[in-house]
Amino acid sequence: MAEINWGNKCWMVVIYLVRDDGKVLLHWNKNMNTWIPVGGHIEVGETPREAIRREIKEETEFDFDFLENSEIQGNSKIIKFHRFQIDTVPHHNHHMTFVFVGKCKEYFEKQGTDKGEKLKWFSKDEILEIKEDMIESVWKVALEAIYKTQGI
Length: 152
Hints:
Elements: E1 9-18, E2 24-29, E3 34-36, E4 38-41, H1 48-59, E5 63-66, E6 70-73, E7 76-79, E8 83-88, E9 94-106, E10 119-122, H2 124-130, H3 136-150
Parallel strand pairs: 1-9
Antiparallel strand pairs: 1-4, 2-3, 2-10, 5-9, 6-7, 8-9
């Protein structure tokens, strides 16, 4: 089996989890000094969907459904995700990121991740109020996730 050439790339997954009331979950990243979606690195042997399930279990313990489904076509399993993005991250090379949207099935008030990072549920209006202090792709996809889960 051929090895993946990781080079200067980190393979990542993130998910924009949305509650029934239309609020989206973000966490405070102290290194980037901004709100970003929950996620992390894909570990060796994981698929992107397996990685995000693990990350959500570790960081939030919330139960969710992917909005994008997978399907079988012959011998292929087609994995659908919201988008794929390549980000240049200061002091961390390039992030090759599979971006998912999910609907939170059950959740509870949780103040932080397993690493002590703050968690917060944001409404559309709250996102719009602080978008100038956020990474553009984060606030745009957060709004897309809200609209997508709310059928807007």
